[in-house]
Give the backbone structure.
Amino acid sequence: MSVKLIAMMHCNTDAEETFEQELKKLVDTSLQEDGCLKYEVYQYNNERCRYLIIEEWQDEETLSKHQASVPYKHFVRISPVLLARPAKIKTLERLV
């Protein structure tokens, strides 16, 4: 069964533009990866610096490969400077 990952992120007010640019690069490359079924980014209506990311991967193996990729590692490396607080990430396994 597929694996879904949900991430809640809150960037610093002065880093919103850079955060969105870096996030867009990550999404664009991730969507090209084998096993990526979905990679959606949402922005809260009344809180412009808050984001919800929903990813779906074919299985644990393809998610692990994604997390070992250069674009993902780059985003993880730069995100502490851009985020107001650490991201909250939950991984879900699809049952049916």
In short: The longest strand covers residues 3-10. The chain has a mean pLDDT of 95. The two ends are 8 Å apart (CA to CA).
